[in-house]
Amino acid sequence: MAHKVHPKSFRIKETKDWSSRWLSKRNFPQVLEEDFQIREFLEKKLKEASVDKIDIERSPGKLSLIIETARPGLIIGRGGAGIEELKRQLKTIVKSVKDFHLDIREIRNPWEYASLVASWIVSQLEKRMAPRKVMKQAVSKTMANRAIKGVRVEIAGRLGGAEIARREWLAQGRLPRQTLRANVDYALKEALTRYGTIGVKVWLYKGDIFE
């Protein structure tokens, strides 16, 4: 059997970087648990904000949260009220440092990010749309971008309410999944339908990166 490796961990320090960037020798377990709590809170709080990824950077006495989203106005709120409320709620979780900074970065085209494409597929499946039709729409909308060289969409579960779970996939363009210099964006999401959980995987190939 083939050994499956996460596309991002496979390319760490080649074309990808860590989502949490810090070093702690004394209280490593506590800081790591705090990172998990921060991500879990933000994923639930900002579920409708089309968040692609959350990066955490730590330095002595300082914490920086970098949130990339397609809907920054939904997070910032009117007059910055939303971001201030978010900081107030995060203070109950962040206990290792007193000073932390929140950086909101806007995503111009959500169809260039695997996480946002997978989130759109999840939303359509939860609305009981036909799985095959949803995959075709996702692939066509993604390949309309010149930055995307190839795409693969895979869903698995009780598709359409079938008694037996199955796996279906659709691909277009090139997708070199075993090439280290290939810039492959990958995301895994879960759709909670009345028939059970449906897994959604998306790969986007954005060309090669040469140093």
How would you describe this structure to a colleague?
With 211 residues, this protein is of the alpha/beta class. It is 30% helix and 32% strand. It is built from six helices and eight strands. The protein has helices spanning 7-10, 28-45, 72-76, 81-90, 114-126, 131-143; strands at 20-21, 51-59, 62-69, 99-106, 150-157, 166-173, 182-193, 196-208. Strands 1-2-3-4 form a four-stranded mixed β-sheet. Strands 6-5-8-7 form a four-stranded antiparallel β-sheet, with helices on one face. The radius of gyration is 19 Å and the shape is globular.
Please tag this protein with its features:
alpha/beta; 30% helix; 4-stranded mixed sheet; 8 strands; 4-stranded antiparallel sheet; 32% strand; 211 residues
